[in-house]
Design goal:
By secondary structure, this protein is of the alpha+beta class. The protein has helices at 36-43, 76-91, 110-121; strands at residues 14-27, 52-65, 94-95, 129-139, 142-146.
Amino acid sequence: MTRTSEQGEGKLARVKVTRRVHFSAAHRLGREDWTPEENRRVFGDCSNPNWHGHNYELDVTVAGEVDESTGFVYDLKDLRDTVERLVLADVDHRNLNLDVDWLHGRNPTTENLVVAIWQRLTPALPAGVQLERLVLWETPRNYVEYCGE
Ligand code: NI
């Protein structure tokens, strides 16, 4: 039987879909093996000993073929639920240095945070759906982007 689709010759469209989520968290950047002066010089206000907060925005993009029966790549409600369960439940309104097991021992820069989130999410997606890109905004002016290795 020949499969046909609007894209022709049995080729299904590969589409990227994105869910944006938000969380607020406290952190402090620094290295324990550096002096407070060195940490202040490198990490600035983010090395403030008594913590400070950020309002993060996270864009989670997955890619896959459009399912012929649903017309979805991946139900965005399921994507939201996965991100809430594996990431937001642990980080929202928490202290990234103290409260999050999977960040333990990592300096919680936006770069380290986005890689850790990638490692949390990528094994949790169903077959045929790939994590494509994460964009993590720490402020309205600064973001990091990670697309895996
Ligand atoms: Ni900061």
